[in-house]
Amino acid sequence: MESLICVPVLLPLLAAGVKLAIGGRLRHLQSVISLVTLGLSLAVSVVLLVAAESHGPLVTHLGGWPSPIGICLVADRLSTLVLVVSSAVTFCVMVYSVANAYDQQEHDAPMAIFHPAFLVMVAGVADAFLSGDLFNLFVAFELLLSGSYVLLTFGGTEARIRAGATYTLMALVSSMLFLVALAVTYGATGTLALAQLAERFPQLPEQVKLLVELTLLLAFAIKAAIFPMSAWLPDSYPTAPAPATAVFAGLLTKVGVYSIIRLEALLFPGGPVSTLLMWLALATMLVGVLGAVAQTDLKRMLSFTLVSHIGYMVFGVALSTRAGMAGAIFYVVHHITVQTSLFLVAGMVERRTGTTSVTGLGGLMKATPLIAVLFFVPAMNLSGIPPMSGFLGKLLLVQAGLAAGGWLPVTLVAAGLVTSLLTLYSVAKAWSRAFWSGVRAERVGTVVESEEDTGEDPTVTTTALPAALAVSVTALVVLGLSFTVLAGPLSALAERAASELMAREPYITAVLGRQR
């Protein structure tokens, strides 16, 4: 069973190499290879989740070198849970990509590189979730970022190159900080294995521990788009192709959040930085959602809501309690699917109408009722309308905050409720203007008849969409709704994952074994 842990990392890399060898030829074969690879990775991830739930953390030592000498991959409840959800999301996004036919839509884009870059990014995400070593976590970040650079600038338009430059600059700063933290950590402890660090960090002087924790937190906060390190995200994500934007929003920021969850629980439990994290969570929620309220473009509005809802996850981590950590894990799983779904729907709107500006849209409920429903359902889920999973995730965090007590956790609870209401206002305003109300302005590439001119309902001449596009998004929306139906088992699994994570001993023993 331990040998399967490498599959979600190695299989996409192998497939990416094969697809690079194929080049621009046999494009249908490229699509088949991608879908088969991601489907197998999903199946293996489910098997690993079941095994980790039954037998505890699973460990594989790369190259046969035991930890801490070598690098290991660890599959515990937390890593396998997020791996399953991310694998399901990337499979649906790949179906969307194939159906969207970028080889026909973007004639000047280097199609031979799109699928390999996507698979390299997927391999990096899986490696980050499974990594049991800080240096390997750094390698995983660089791997997923190398693929994301290509996807963000795909097609080479001016807007994408400009956004890619901003994204690259922030990623380089984050990577530099990460390297500094690695150097300090290795110099102070003589190891980068997470399990061994968990044993050696308590023996370090408080100043050294605080320096390492703050440096790592700053590096991961940039990647997770935590305020005030979040300004780059709304200017970068909306310019990328819809599948890339959806994966960036759903997964890449969560890799940063996952790293914070893992390190705060394993290496710095209950440290003095918890108060700082609460303030960051408060600012991230409020600044992000206020930015969303001011937007008139679907993609930019969703980008700001993405930032604001990262604050909920940081809030759960900052509480440093099992209930708070369980709420954060539940919310990560919920948010991956919902945010990805919304960005894919925004991509459908853009392909159908040529714009995502809500001031240039209107009456799409009549012209495209399926797209309207596919946007409405995850939008309400994101807002936390009962009894959807968004509401249940927020409820877990509210209960954890109230149980923790103190004025700052209670203030965060109140801020979370305000953020939820403003999120509802933002998405309801966007849905009303884009889908429900009459057309506000003419759109480039579409034929519009306003209600005032004809005396009839607005009609829109738009581009037809492939059926597989709607199927892939519908599957993601249904997956998000399934978390509501399965909220009991999922929340119980999140609690067990949080308990295992905060106990620390199962992880350390699984990795080091008798060597301790």
Automatic annotation (TrEMBL):
Give the UniProt subcellular location, in the record's own words: Cell membrane; Membrane
* Gene Ontology biological process terms in this record: ATP synthesis coupled electron transport
State a GO cellular component annotated for this protein: plasma membrane
Note the superkingdom of the native organism: Bacteria
GO MF entries: NADH dehydrogenase (ubiquinone) activity
Classify the protein's membrane topology as the record does: Multi-pass membrane protein
In the UniProt record, does the keyword Nucleus occur?
no
Supply the alphabetized keyword list.
Answer: Cell membrane, Membrane, Transmembrane, Transmembrane helix
Positions of transmembrane segments: 33-52, 78-99, 111-130, 137-156, 176-198, 210-230, 242-261, 273-295, 301-321, 328-349, 361-383, 395-428, 467-494
UniProt keyword Nucleotide-binding present: no
Please give the Pfam families that the UniProt record associates with this protein: Proton_antipo_M
Q: Which residues form the NADH:quinone oxidoreductase/Mrp antiporter transmembrane domain?
A: 131-422
Return the similarity comment. Belongs to the CPA3 antiporters (TC 2.A.63) subunit D family.
Q: What protein is this chain from?
A: Na+/H+ antiporter subunit D
Q: What is the native source organism of this protein?
A: Nonomuraea diastatica
Record lineage: Bacteria, Bacillati, Actinomycetota, Actinomycetes, Streptosporangiales
